[in-house]
Write a structure and sequence with these properties.
The chain has six helices and five strands. By secondary structure, it is an alpha/beta fold. Helix 4 crosses helix 5. It starts with a helix and ends in a 6-residue tail after the last helix. The model has no long low-confidence stretch (mean pLDDT 94).
Length: 196
């Protein structure tokens, strides 16, 4: 009886050890493959889509709109009550002439919601391509979800690089380590949920 319990305990420990090693190896691969630069600065798309939730994303989206890389900017996941005038006031370097070309989505509360909200907005205006603006560490999960939820849409990734996230020496910075570990775990979940 005791021997059987010991055997089960050893098997459980071996399984947990294997899962930990697999997760750790995948995590290192994930961090190593995060975008370090914007690969495509020139391709025009039908829309620019900014996911709220991090510094620098909105200002980059406005710069891309001003540079005519698309004729429309959609900001997904905006707080209720925030309008286009507020967005432009916060980003005081953005010209007010851009107001005509910005749409806001107020319904998304997470990345799955961003993808679904964007899908509805894209379909309403029959747009077939978008430039996706979000943080570099958030890009793999965002791309995965957007491609699964909008399989017919061409997506050009445009990562933003927050100063507070130290990708190059992540193991020396506890906040970055925790952020990346959390994001990697969410990325793994996004591979299977929600169902395509």
């Amino acid at each position: 009886m005791r021997r059987g319990k010991r055997l089960r305990s050893r098997r459980l420990l071996a399984l947990l050890g294997f899962l930990f090693l697999a997760w750790t190896g995948g995590f290192i691969w994930f961090v190593d493959h995060l975008p370090r630069a914007v690969e495509d600065n020139a391709t025009q798309t039908d829309a620019i889509v900014v996911l709220t939730g991090g510094s620098g994303r909105l200002s980059v989206g406005l710069e891309l709109l001003e540079a005519d890389l698309a004729d429309r900017l959609f900001v997904s996941g905006v707080y209720s009550g925030v309008d286009v005038a507020t967005i432009l006031d916060i980003n005081d370097e953005a010209p007010t002439t851009l107001a005509c070309c910005i749409d806001l989505g107020h319904d998304a509360h997470h990345t799955v919601g961003n993808a679904r909200e964007t899908k509805i907005w894209m379909a309403a205006s029959d747009r077939r391509s978008l430039r996706l603006v979000t943080a570099n560490y958030h890009m793999p999960r965002s791309l995965n979800l957007f491609r699964r939820i909008m399989p017919g849409i061409e997506i050009v990734p445009h990562p933003v690089f927050p100063d507070t996230v130290r990708i190059e020496a992540w193991w020396r910075h506890p906040r970055t380590l925790v952020l990346l570990a959390d994001e990697y775990t969410k990325y793994l979940v996004s591979l299977v949920w929600p169902p395509a």
